[in-house]
Write a structure and sequence with these properties.
Layout (H helix, E strand, L loop, with lengths): L1 H20 L17 H4 L6 H4 L8 H6 L13 E9 L8 E7 L3 E7 L14 H4 L20 E7 L4 E7 L8 E3 L5 E3 L1 E2 L13 E6 L2 E6 L13 E6 L2 H7 L10 H7 L7 E2 L3 H9 L2
Parallel strand pairs: 9-12
Antiparallel strand pairs: 1-4, 1-11, 2-3, 2-5, 5-8, 6-7, 9-10, 10-11
The protein binds calcium ion (2 copies).
One calcium ion binds next to loops.
Length: about 290
């Protein structure tokens, strides 16, 4: 009995250590359901489906470039909790993994979602197929399970000055993918928001600012594949002030907020769409 207690305590301590060091295990973050999400997110969850868009719809090069993330600008201006929400995916047979990396005076990193495929069991969710065109069942003997639309995790309270990156491990739960980097070495397909860090040298993420959330979409195929950039789509809540700062909307005089929102499209860091109808229209024109 004593031994069992000791083993349980040791397991708890080991898990605690891995969270503190940022080397997240499968259960490092508590994945919560959309029903447990903040009201502000819940009320616009359906609107996010436009950012999933269509499977295999190739974006044009200008659009991809305009929505590129400048990692040096993805920095918190004020302390804030960071929440990451799964929106949907068009990854086909791939089942990707999403990690984060937060850098201030130290580096914290870890897995957020180990299987960013959509859960077949969530199909009663309204407009499910628009978020999840090809859902999956859980894999046997894997701790990570497919996600429901709107599943989310709090990845910690972060300080002003923290730089964020998000990393997509392509098809990780099935063993990952690999290819040759520019030195000719065979390496895994792990995609950063930062094109310069990607082993195939290509841009693998696009980003939007939408209603004080940052919405990001990854292209998961080595070499860019179909370039639909919606193979894993997620939204990040870093707080209104931080989101607007990152998107270049500062200061925030409320009467001119509309003008600012419409004006940032030309800045190149993030493009924005004032209304969801505009997103659908813009995407259909690509
Ligand atoms: Ca796709
Ligand atoms: Ca793709």
């Amino acid at each position: 009995m004593k031994n069992q207690l000791f083993t349980a305590l040791l397991a708890a301590l080991t898990l605690g250590t891995s969270i503190l060091s940022g080397n997240a295990s499968a259960s490092a973050f508590d994945i919560k359901s959309r029903d447990q999400s903040p009201d502000a997110f819940k009320s616009i969850l359906q609107e996010f489906r436009a950012f999933v868009g269509e499977e295999a719809k190739t974006l044009n090069p200008e659009t991809i470039k305009a929505k590129q993330v400048d990692l040096s600008k993805l920095q918190l201006k004020v302390d804030h909790d960071v929440n990451v929400f799964f929106i949907g995916e068009t990854a086909g047979g791939y089942r990707n993994r999403l990690d984060f990396k937060a850098t201030d005076s130290t580096v914290a990193s870890g897995k957020i979602f180990g299987d960013t495929s959509c859960n077949t069991g969530d199909k009663e969710f309204f407009n499910f197929s628009d978020f999840c065109p090809n859902p999956n069942d859980p894999l046997a003997n894997k701790a990570d399970k497919p996600l429901n639309v709107g599943d989310w995790a709090n990845i910690g309270s972060m300080k002003a000055g923290t730089n964020l990156d998000f990393l997509l491990y392509a098809n990780d739960i099935n063993g990952g993918i690999s290819g040759k980097d520019k030195s000719g070495n065979t390496v895994k397909g792990i995609w950063s928001l930062n094109q310069a860090l990607n082993p195939d040298g290509l841009q693998h993420a696009i980003a939007y600012y939408y209603k004080d959330y940052l919405v990001m979409g990854f292209e998961d195929l080595w070499g860019g594949g179909d370039k639909d950039y919606n193979d894993t789509v997620f939204a990040i809540d870093i707080g209104k002030e931080n989101a607007r700062y990152v998107a270049g909307i500062t200061p925030i005089p409320e009467p001119s907020a509309t003008l600012a929102l419409l004006g940032i499209a030309g800045l190149g860091l993030f493009t924005t769409r004032r209304r969801i109808a505009a997103v659908v229209k813009a995407d259909s024109a690509l």
